[in-house]
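Input/output pair, single chain:
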Amino acid sequence: MIDSPREACGVFGLYTSADDVARTIFFGLHALQHRGQESAGIATMENGDIHLQTGMGLVSQSFMESDLRRLPGTMGIGHTRYSTTGSAESRNAQPFVATGPNGKIALGHNGNVINAMTLRDQLITDYSSQFHTSTDSEVILQFLINTPGGSWSDRIAQLMREFQGAYSVVFLCDDGLIAMRDPLGVRPLCLGSIEDGWVVASESCALDQIGAEIVRQIDPGEAVLINADGVKTIYNGNKGKRAMCSFEFIYFARPDSIIDNNLVYSKRMAMGRQLAIEHNIDADLVIPVPDSAIAAGVGYASEAGIPYQEGLIKNRYVGRTFIQPDQRMREQGVRMKFNPLNDILDGKRIVVVDDSIVRGNTTPHVISLLRKAGAKEIHWRVASPPIVSPCHFGVDMATQDELIASSRSVVEIKEIIGADTLGYLSIEGMLSALNSDSVHCTGCFTREYPVPIQLGMDKFLFENNT
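Output:
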């Protein structure tokens, strides 16, 4: 994918009788690396003591063998982060650990709490809570360790009544490992079994990585406690409304993951087929923008009856860089990621299937590469609707003004990116492909969010107010 929305985070939890908890979590986090590359962390619990290791960068950069040996215990949690609230700095690396009236816990969070600032101020006033990071995740942590209540079930019930937005959470406490998902189920969370224990993870691909079997999804509004007695639902606060993030299926999740009982690859193929129904055209080849649009490209080609081939080869060893190319070098920056197959493209009318266009600032350079490779016509097809509004539930897309489709027509966007034609999947077509008319959040496409959104929300909200 090019010009992509930034990732969400990944969470992982393990309760086991084995003695290699940290090592198993390490490999589980590897499978969730696509969800966040800014920092990673593991926390384990042994006899009431929490052991923590976090680091900036990839999972492989954050842990050495010696680090894992210093993380003993029979249960633990892990986290991979992309910052959606708070800067990318070491103090914001999760899991977070804190001690309060309700004991000591370690916590990892995926999502965004949209009323976190109000709740943070309330916690400071009511309990003199001390905050050490600039994230909404720490607000969840402080609420759990400070809020009075007879049990974790009571405190979680109160949390779900007061917290708005997205939060798939795993945390360690004296009672065991607890996993919970917000009442709308915006971000994914699944439960799996392993020979000697239980696993929870953002995506089922992490279960596959460690040889676990998927059992089911954690329901929206559900909290489960995992300990020596097994798995027990300790709270279920879903009120019937659901709003699973549609972008999990469009881009974020790995294609081999099963989310809400659906294989992501199959849903992407279905969106590609629907895109061909809505925007077919006479062409010689269908090529995808690798890697996230491959399944949609296969679906488009199958439905349109046009041969499918690879026309762009992605350099999979190019990671994130803090060195940004200037305008003169921007096309060279695109070449670092993609190299066109000239012999395949020369003289051909091609349909290029992408999964989304966010800012639209790199798409023109890819089209330029394809034209220089000899493509005769370039018909750009997008397997999602135009993104007209930011996400406020754990995806760092862009600001309203940065979104190319927020104030421009499809015709205007076509001219800007330099394609011969441009077609987006309709909202109705996307929901049809997802086999859903009401259980997915479509706020970034419709400006209609599942809960009221405050205008001017900012990922640096806490930093700008301290």
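The domain at 10-243 is CATH 3.60.20.10 (Glutamine Phosphoribosylpyrophosphate, subunit 1, domain 1). The longest helix spans residues 264-278.
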